[in-house]
């Protein structure tokens, strides 16, 4: 799997596992059968392992394509409007293995609790993602009489219900979320760990921060802020990503802004930058780069 995914042996850390290997293994269960991933992890036949790894890599590419396609459709079909505190979309061809990923993208993009439902004849399956201001599983609990089953935690949940109850569920959940989020300004807040000059975002700092791994829920990657950063070049790459060349006036840094091409269009020549410092391995060579979290025009208070 490492070979097929293009990772350099000996440089695998928690982020490569979480964002590289994990999605490929999970793609089997999302679109086909999880037995493919199990067989890959349990086989001692290298030829069979490479065959299975290629299949999982293809499934993951299909998963990415479907997620983007359904996200765009869900985004377009959200009719209630941005003034409402809940995004809820349902359709017959919202694949049950993808609905959670689409809900995550919607919440990430609009900072609203999001519910995406697959309607399959007389039966519906849904997945929900939330924001810190709302415990989504408790909100579903207020709709329990309309559901067949539900479960999850504060930030994510899954559920099923009869299609005949779908309209009543949509209305009830919207009312519940409106009540629970009344008085909240639904604007995301980015917590910053340190402010430093860009010149200090160097290899020494990156290696020191790497000692704090693994990062994850409850222990996020440290976020740094550097002010008055010069934007030397901006290019769109992939599906909505930006590659930037940034400078402090002396040295330059490579930076990536994932899924932010639309949000960061027309950057000013100088910015205040919030970012994560990352050591990336490419073709066996380590590279230092910045992962952009947010920007604003330089000097703004």
Short description:
The chain has 301 residues and is α+β, with helices and mostly antiparallel strands. It is built from 8 helices and 11 strands.
Summarize the topology.
Elements: H1 2-5, H2 14-31, H3 35-42, H4 46-77, E1 87-91, H5 99-110, E2 114-120, E3 123-129, H6 136-141, E4 149-152, E5 156-162, H7 166-180, E6 194-195, H8 203-210, E7 224-237, E8 241-247, E9 252-257, E10 270-282, E11 285-297
Parallel strand pairs: 1-2, 6-7, 9-11
Antiparallel strand pairs: 2-3, 3-5, 4-5, 7-8, 7-10, 8-9, 10-11
Helix pairs in contact: 2-4, 3-4, 4-5
Shape: globular
What value does the Rg take, in angstroms?
A: 21 Å
**pLDDT averaged residue by residue:** 93
CATH architecture descriptor name of the largest domain: Roll
Span between N and C termini?
A: 47 Å
**DSSP strand (E) fraction?**
25-35%
Which CATH first-tier class of the largest domain would you pick?
Alpha Beta
